[in-house]
Amino acid sequence: MIRKQITSHYSVSEQISLDDVDRLAASGVTLIIGNRPDNEEAGQLAFAEIAAQAEKNHIKALHIPFAGGQMQDSDVVAFKAALSTADNVHAFCRSGNRSSLIWEAAHQSMQTKKTPNKQFDVVIVGAGTAGISTAASLLKRNTNVRICLIDPAAEHFYQPGWTLVGGGVFKAENTRRNMVDVIPTGVEWIQQAVQNFQPKDDYVTLENGDVIAYKQLVVASGLKLDWDAIEGLSDALGHYGVTSNYRYDLAPYTWEIAKNLEGGNAIFTQPPMPIKCAGAPQKAMYLSCDHWLKQGLLDDIEVSFYSAGAVLFGVSDYVPALQTYIEKYQVKTHFTHNLVKVDGPNQLAYFATKDENDQTKIVEKSFDMLHVCPPQCAPDFIRNSILVDDAGWVDVDKETLRHKAFSNIWALGDVSNSPNAKTMAAARKQAPVVAQNVYDALAGRPIRAVYDGYGSCPLTVERGKIVLAEFGYGGVVMPTFPSWLNKGTKPTRLAWILKEDLLPPFYWHGMLKGYEWFVKPTMRH
């Protein structure tokens, strides 16, 4: 059980065991609340058994179950009443998320509505690719709409460029801009972090205490790279040959290691989904291998790809082309192997997998180079809000991107639970959809713009060639260009030119300025 302390008197966790009940009682908990319905999954411990174990420990247990995304006002009322009867409460569900959400809902209902410090037509949380693009697209439709972007970051990054930084193609500094220089003219930027949401009162509270009111709210906060989820990783990064193209300051180190490595073990890892740009862990590997091959070093370097997943790439149409490069570079693939620990000084990586009896075992592997893709989740202030589903992502309709419970809230980019690949290309396609729907909602018109799940992953299989993977919901291949111009599932020079030469200026001077080339929203009639 991983116990998360929400306040000094309230904690949450995933499903607990009978031994956990004993430990909770010993720690001073006086009430256990179960927010998970019985029989939600096979083998789940019945709440009656937990209640009986709690009674043996002379503490209370109360069942307030609800399915993910289906919390009712009556649940909140019962939860508040329960909190008033105990001074140290622990609640659980499948992941701990529902128990966080019901506490947040109860906490908000006990607060009085605050007077806003500022009011806007549209508040956008997050000034990354998705947030800025949505603001710019909105202004293209109505220059008079009052918009604010809320984000504490001082810098903005073109993150797709970090793959090429790690391959020695781009300089890292060319992927960075000052945030103030990319905020659209006419949009107010509030350089603060959001503390929580009050969707029933139409405002957000910032960490400095300010209250910002809205007519329409767009959540585009991105996701959290959870480096600390892997034991020892944070301390090892940037040293001992441990690197990651998922960080601006580390992508140059990837290239430094690759160009200086003349032999030994090179390991590239991929965690469980979802992650942003699922092809990025492989891109780092292919570009490094291409360099070693051209330098005549590949026979002296054992290259391994350790993935927590079961397949090379989630869209099967692109696997044959990728498999050709796996064979060309002599890569040893290890699926269903999840990196759980890094010993930097001794250059050892540890992976959790299953043996022939389906029991967990740990595999130890030495390395000279270790490129890590970290586990990823929604930011803490999002996961602890009332806006999310049971997995912690903002709960939206996958076509309109409107929140399922709050009609004036929208989400796009990496933070939403729409079942598309989390890529910049997806955000590029989503931004006009959200902008159009928010524009219509402000005018009192029915919303009509829909998102088809489009995402793109330019898989850099060698320097000078890319497999341009483009697909929508359900893994349906959705090429932008005709087959005579782009070979689709095959590596091409044209796709490399697109990635290296065309997309960066298109990003800075087109996408962030609200130009919707190739991504005009589809309108439902």
TrEMBL record:
Keyword Flavoprotein: yes
Domain FAD/NAD(P)-binding: 120-233
Entry keywords, A to Z: FAD, Flavoprotein, Oxidoreductase, Quinone, Transit peptide
GO biological process: sulfide oxidation, using sulfide:quinone oxidoreductase
Cofactor(s) needed for function: FAD
GO molecular function annotation: FAD binding; hydrolase activity; quinone binding; sulfide:quinone oxidoreductase activity
Pfam families the UniProt entry points to: BLH_phosphatase, Pyr_redox_2
Positions of the Beta-lactamase hydrolase-like protein phosphatase-like domain: 5-105
Membrane-crossing residue ranges in chain numbering: none
Cross-referenced SUPFAM superfamilies: FAD/NAD(P)-binding domain (SSF51905)
Keyword Flavoprotein: yes
NCBIfam families noted in UniProt: TIGR01244 family sulfur transferase
PANTHER family, sorted: SULFIDE:QUINONE OXIDOREDUCTASE (PTHR10632), SULFIDE:QUINONE OXIDOREDUCTASE, MITOCHONDRIAL (PTHR10632:SF2)
Protein name: Sulfide:quinone oxidoreductase
Taxonomic placement: Bacteria, Pseudomonadati, Pseudomonadota, Gammaproteobacteria, Oceanospirillales
